[in-house]
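Amino Acid Chain and Its Fold in Token Form
===========================================
Structure side: the spatial fold of the chain, written down as a series of whole-number tokens.
Position: the record begins directly beneath this header, with no further notes in between.
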Amino acid sequence: MAPKKIEIRATVIFNRRNQGQEERLVNFVTDLRILVKGCGYQDGNRMLHDARVLRSFHPMVREKCLEKGNELTLRVDSRLCHCQRPELRNITR
């Protein structure tokens, strides 16, 4: 039973993780990728995608993720993570 308890604790920590106001998106996403590994999800990528949309601090990041929907790839995600807020408007792929 110990592994289940560890997964539950990891899931709680993952689901409580929000991006801080001054935290860079790349740091937030990196932390989420580390945290999701301990949760035991069958589709960790889907959980990461949801977390980026739901718990990103900046509304423009959430908007861009929602615009991309299922087309949000690691490439686009990487571009989101490394750009400044004004540059978010220009991300199309």
